[in-house]
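#onboarding

Welcome to the new folks! Below is a worked example of what a typical request in this channel looks like: someone posts a single protein sequence, and someone else replies with the predicted structure as tokens. Don't worry about understanding the tokens yet, we'll cover that in week two.

Example request:
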Amino acid sequence: MTDASDASSQDTFISHLMELRNRLLRAVIAVLGVFVVLFIYPGPSAIYDILAQPMLASLPEGTRMIATGVITPFMVPIKVTLLAAFVLALPFVLYQAWAFVAPGLYRHEQRLALPLIISSSFLFLLGMAFCYFVVFHTVFRFIAHFAPHSITPAPDIEAYVNFVMTMFLAFGVTFEVPVAVVLLVKTGIVTVKKLREIRGYVVVCAFVLAAVVTPPDVLSQILLAAPLCLLYEIGILAGAALEKRKPADEDPADQASAVVAQDDAAQKE
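Example response:
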């Protein structure tokens, strides 16, 4: 009996690994497919020019960015195109991640899939858009006006892309705070009351995180910490609404299946 149980558990583990491999492979293929399309049109150079626009707008007239590496003018636009492909394929990537864990969830938990994928993708893109249209234009102009007149700025394109990717990731993840708060409340890990009690600690952590991630100026730190605190409050409001609906959302079929599963486990033991 023990050998049969071990063999069954090993087969289950292998099947989960194969499922994970297939999901990862589909996600990678989706990203590469979008990358090929973007590489053909509008092309890596055009995509990089769009990304560099906030910096170019803050530089003195006639000034351009520089490339210090031999293959940097080729590799940097490729990296930017790959980043754009990942962002565009993000909903499909998130769906593959959810589809992997969905079989182990109850029916009412599986119904969260579509809202979770849509909200996560939207908020991540919203964070990147806020960073591009608001933060970059504000911070770059502030730095340009603060710089001494005896200096002619000429940013390196590789350093610029690394900075942009870090900022995009920081703001994209920051804008996922409402989703994280709702999931914590939905799974019962934390209550809305507890989230309200630790509000002060969250504010402090938000400014500490902003100081670590953003450039060493107060303006950019505020532009990251303020949305994080606001999104935390939005998450609390959504979590409070979810707590009120929680008893009505319980599915009797899920409860019955849970009881049957417990009875089967007891009989096997």
